């Protein structure tokens, strides 16, 4: 879609509200001027236009608020911004192609440590990110790690998309559980009881960028396993990994058939269709049910809770993360920085976070005070995602190796191969070890 002046006043209430956005690009009235932050750091080049590649939104309000803020930026600066949407799975390869051929979108809203696959193809944004950190309470360490390489910012952290267990309260109680289990042993017993009642669970073992990776990493980390150590040495072949696989096989036996091919959309569809009673997802699952009158019974029955604690003895979750990078082939890098600076201004970012209804957890600490986090008990498990997430590639450093292994779904495939019987546990671990060693040399 192209965001231009003609569409500024169209759309939802969120868009209308954004028409009154304040800030150095176009404050309206004395009160707005008084509330406005310091002057803009970056001045767009004459005749600038921009193109952003982003992931398809799961929450309509998030998209509307992002587009509204973009329209306000265009209204204030004259810089036209085109927004292209791709499925979660397709953003990564399309961004990599754009980076390597040197053409296509100017910016990309990408996943995890994807920028580390092509850091030399990106505009350094240290000036932007240090200014944003100083203005908005500082960056969360986990999100910052996804933006910094060798002391330089190569990407601007945007958000963590929290991951939590979403379940049908009545089904859990019917299975004999008055409280949701807090540990992995109790969780397995619950899933076995749900299957016996004909209301099974389901987690993705397919190449799902978000849900598949979140699940696989939780399985490994909750049992004390890790792909590599602090020095980046491959350590996947361990008793802890073997224990994680054995646990995964027992859980998989309780699942609805077909989860080995699930992508990010499939567990949503299965849950909302009443085919599964328990899965892990962002808060978007709740709001998809809430907005459909025909699903009122499901919406009223949904509860959310953080993933159970395994033998490692503490919460360990990946959390989907997204950053925004500017490609070096962008003809208007100052305009791109000005756009990001505008989107992170307090009013604009708070509006976006609130409209996302707890789906997008802030990267900057100022926005932890957004009232969305305490507005609904359903939001509680998602509120600390940015603060508590463990970065991809734990316990090693982020870089091309961690990014490549994530993009190649090494851990996702290891568990899928083992639980489906495609390989024995030992063979699946050995295959993952071989694949990891190609990246960690």
Automatic annotation (TrEMBL):
Keyword Signal on entry: yes
Lineage, highest ranks first: Bacteria, Pseudomonadati, Pseudomonadota, Alphaproteobacteria, Rhodobacterales
Keywords, A to Z? Signal, Transport
Q: Which organism is it from?
A: Paracoccus contaminans
Major localization listed first in the record, in broad terms:
periplasm
Protein name as catalogued: ABC transporter substrate-binding protein
Compartment(s) of residence: Periplasm
Q: Hey, which family's this protein in?
A: Belongs to the bacterial solute-binding protein 1 family.
Report the GO terms under cellular component: periplasmic space
